[in-house]
Design a protein that fits this description.
single chain, mainly alpha, 2 domains
């Protein structure tokens, strides 16, 4: 069992029994009943809590006449992601799906960056987290497509514009959609895992150069969150299109 970080130990000290009971009810065998909450899950809870607390505090301090620095930053981010989504998705889709896209981007970004703080780990350096994020996006854009076209109408878009090639296009489209889950999850996981590993090694061996890698790691964290966001937009655009 990997050494637990402080936030995981804290959560297990209060929630180990109910968490263990829930997992057993779901048929999941817990190797260590005294500590069923892993470092990764504890960090996900922390990031979700940070986002929830931040949103609550911002909602209480919103001001039309005297907006603060954080309000300005969030408004720029909100409008920027919405406008970018409109360009990629089209037909006002960026603002239509903005709550999901905005939350997705900042959840991934904070998950990517939080591991740079001593005593924390980046949840996105764990493949289970990135697969989960990819699956959520996968089911979300398919749900949007089904809502737009209906079940049979959406399946019809997988057949392509040429009826005679439907027998070939349909299985290729199905395969390509499942491949998106692998692509989204592995890209994010590999970059964050490698970035954390390299930064940790250089900080231990050559502290000065390690700080340079911290800057690189920050850039990679921003870039990977942005790539995930843009790909989610592209998939939403495809789900809304009449033909894939």
């Amino acid at each position: 069992m990997a050494e637990q970080i402080w936030i995981a130990r804290l959560l297990n000290s209060f929630l180990a029994a109910p968490a263990d009971a829930i997992l057993r009810a779901l048929g999941v065998h817990v190797a260590h009943p005294a500590s069923p909450i892993s470092n990764t899950f504890a960090m996900e809870i922390l990031v979700a809590g940070v986002l929830g607390l931040g949103a609550t505090l911002m909602a209480r301090r919103l001001s039309v006449d005297r907006p603060g620095m954080w309000q300005h930053a969030l408004e720029v981010s909100w409008n920027g992601i919405g406008d970018h989504g409109d360009e990629v998705i089209g037909h006002g889709g960026g603002h239509r799906f903005l709550p999901y896209l905005f939350t997705l981007f900042f959840f991934i970004l904070i998950c990517n960056l939080i591991g740079m703080i001593p005593g924390f780990e980046s949840p996105t350096a764990d493949i289970t987290v990135t697969v989960g994020l990819a699956l959520i996006t996968f089911f979300y854009y398919h749900a949007v497509g089904i809502h737009r076209h209906g079940v049979f109408g959406y399946l019809k878009t997988f057949a392509g514009p040429i009826l005679g090639l439907a027998w070939l296009m349909f299985p290729l489209e199905i395969f390509s959609h499942f491949a998106r889950v692998l692509s989204l999850s592995v890209r994010l996981y590999a970059n964050m895992y490698a970035g954390e590993l390299i930064t940790t090694i250089f900080l231990a061996l050559v502290p000065v150069s390690g700080f340079l890698f911290l800057g690189l790691h920050t850039f990679i964290a921003l870039l990977q969150a942005y790539i995930f966001l843009v790909l989610a937009m592209v998939y939403l655009s495809g789900a809304l299109a009449e033909e894939h």
